[in-house]
């Protein structure tokens, strides 16, 4: 009877140990599944963040390219305006040089005529009052 009792007790302990082992293994499987789920979710989250970062970076690059292109066009427009002003200034410079040459020529002619008239008048006065 003692052996039976002891045997039943031992069987009950072994059954309890077996149940505990199975529960432990089931818990380990659930833990692994949960870890895999967390890894998958974390991987998905990281992928979404990477995609979002790439999209943000792409938009920023496009904005910079557009701004650079706008600046390049602006610089070209200013260069054309500068060239136009330079041509206009050269045209004005040539015009004023031409006008100055004409005025100098007229002045020289006027001086020559005036000098000749003065000399003629001086000769007449000199001849008259000799």
From TrEMBL:
BP GO terms, sorted: inner mitochondrial membrane organization
Pfam family, any one: MIC19_MIC25
Domain of life of the organism encoding this protein: Eukaryota
Mode of membrane association: Lipid-anchor
CC terms in the record's Gene Ontology section: MICOS complex
Keywords: Disulfide bond, Lipoprotein, Membrane, Mitochondrion, Mitochondrion inner membrane, Myristate
Localization of this protein: Mitochondrion inner membrane
InterPro entries the record matches: MIC19/MIC25 (IPR007964), MICOS_subunit_Mic19 (IPR052632)
Protein name per UniProt: MIC19 protein
């Amino acid at each position: 009877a003692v052996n039976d009792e002891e045997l039943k007790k031992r069987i009950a302990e072994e059954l309890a140990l077996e149940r505990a082992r199975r529960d432990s293994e089931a818990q380990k499987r659930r833990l692994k599944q949960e870890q895999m789920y967390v890894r998958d979710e974390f991987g998905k989250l990281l992928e979404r963040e990477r995609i979002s970062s790439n999209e943000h970076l792409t938009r920023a690059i496009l904005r910079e390219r557009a701004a650079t292109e706008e600046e390049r066009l602006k610089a070209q427009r200013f260069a054309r305006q500068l060239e136009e002003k330079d041509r206009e200034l050269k045209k004005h410079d040539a015009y004023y040089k031409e006008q100055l040459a004409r005025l100098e020529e007229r002045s020289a002619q006027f001086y020559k005529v005036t000098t000749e008239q003065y000399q003629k008048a001086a000769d007449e006065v000199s001849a008259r009052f000799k």
